[in-house]
Amino acid sequence: MTNSWTKKALALCAAMAAATLSLTACGGSSDTLKIGMAIPTSGENAMYGEYMIKGAQLAVDEINAAGGLLGKQLEIKTSDSACEAGQATSAANDLVTEEIVVSMGGYCSGATLPTIDIFSKANIPMIIPAANSNSLVETPRDNVFLVNGVGSDQAKMGYDWTQKNGYKSLLVIDDKTDYSVGVSTYYQQFAKEAGATIDSISLNPKEKDFSGQVAEILKHDSFYFTGYAEAAGLLIKQSLEAGYSGGILVADGSVDVLTGSTVGQPKASEVIYGTFSVTPDMIDDGGAFISTYKAKFGNEEPGPYVIQTYDSVKLWAQAVTEAGSVEMDAVDAVLHKIEYDGLTGPISFNADGSRKKSPFVIVKVSEDNTFKLFDDMAS
Amino acid sequence: MTQVLIDGLFLGCVYALIALGYSMVYGIIKLLNFAHGDIFMFGAMIAFTMLTAVPGLQSAGIVAVFGVLILSMFLTGGTGVLIEAVAYKPLRSAPRLSLLITAVGMSFVLEYGVKQFWGSKSITWPQWAQMGAGSIPIFDGTITISRLVLMAVSIALMVGLGFYINGTRQGRAMRAIALDQRASTLMGVDVNRTISLVFFIGSALAGAAGVMFGMYYGAIGFMMGFLLGLKAFTAAVIGGIGNMYGAMLGGLTLGLIERTTVYFCNGDDSWKDVVSFGLLILFLTLRPTGILGDRVVERM
Q1: Which of A94, A200, A275, A329 is the most exposed place for a label (fewest CB within 10 A)?
Q2: Nearest to A213 among B3, B11, B267 (CB)
Q3: Domains delineated in chain A
Q4: Do B263 and A176 touch (CB under 8 A)?
């Protein structure tokens, strides 16, 4: 009996050793540079993850067509974070095992935060295209860079807009995610510093019925929703049906055709405003980008964070070219000094890795449900 | 406060309609069909496809929407029967836990299967097939006409089901199986056929709820059945699972409780789910038979 057990154990060990060997063989030196993306591809936020992959793919294809980077072709490895801290951790670990050289992931801030430690320990630079909670740069690290502007910049823009319009009783609604609560907190802070009256409430984005929030909205003359598009559309639709006629502002997570199309035209284009960093249709050579994107992805309009992710890849590629290596320290050093002219505007970073000039503007829903530049608040 | 009542009752009607299917299936084969919420989602998806894929439907207006509603009910009913035949029937004599696990698996199959075909993006219901926005004032609140219509349709479906179960031969067969499956077989009741019928009706109701959900809220997605399914389950337990009237009562109760909680938190819904699911635990421990459990001797 004992003998047979020993034999079995030995056989098992041998099999495991063989498996390990063959795995190592597979993962050895390769001719491609792998870009890792820990993003949601399942669950409620799956659509944003897919937009980000497409943005990155576009940039990767352009770089590969031009001969690659340091003589190597680029390849994208994605891993599903599902926008949950737990799954994001294992997604990040998977990517480390895949031997990625850079991380271009992070959509939900709450799921991006725990990946920072993992990538840092593995000496992988992180360029975060979408997630933009201030908590991501609270503990400054040399290898974390935010391409999107941070929440406090956005909240300031939102508050300035309510003042420009003369709204008196403000309401801010978050969806309990890290990013959303962040923007909401800064918004409240700006309002309180200026002595304005402000209330704040939360909603659960998995719900569809927001009649409770609507009752509260009706008591105010403007509200700012800092969550994502699915809930934004329903919330606005239901508040308009209940007879609300005050100001409506949404944060960048809700700046998506979905918000307007859920609310329905012509109403949507009359009342919905948003705080947003620039998109292809707001920039001078955006038309060219949109047509390339549409040609590649079956006539689909580029959604949120497509150009941010595109910029991230291009930015990293330039840093690698300048550094002549993909090693973290070399790339980080270049990124800290870089002055890159991206589709989202000039990109350079503060010492903590947040973006220097965060290009937030006020946008408004147009007749085709896309958000268009309304006011750059320059004056 | 009137508004709280109206909102709560409306939400309760949606819960009740889905809870009915949960409760019927549980009543008859003691299975918690966790795929039920996803049948609801599937109903919305196929209705959306019919509404957008068939040209010229828009000109038929409300008649077309009604036709699509009926057709979707048949299709989701058929799906329910198919799921039962494929996933539950082979396990009918297996331990209850195996069935439960299969049901959870089925739920994921539906969710991510739908995601493959319809995508992960939230889908906007065609504007013309959404309900209008006119409203009627009641005391110090208002109710939209669309809500009134949906509540009326839900109540009509529930009353119709009540008549069916209490007044027809098949209904009597269902009640008999719920009481004692083996005895029913001995008395000549076609058990397999009756169980299929229960799945058909329950799933058709969920499908109807899905279509009406799309018409009212205007946005559907592959995950929409998950939370709503859990809420409907909670409603069924509160009312007394396995009991048809319990499902309706539980739905309305849960809707009212949720809306009242939000009201007392000044529009913040952070505590809502804590209260709803806390209530679920409270009922399961203190009164597992639900509100109506003891008063009604006969299940179904």
Answers
A1: A329
A2: B267
A3: 32-150+285-357 (3.40.50.2300), 151-281+361-375 (3.40.50.2300)
A4: no
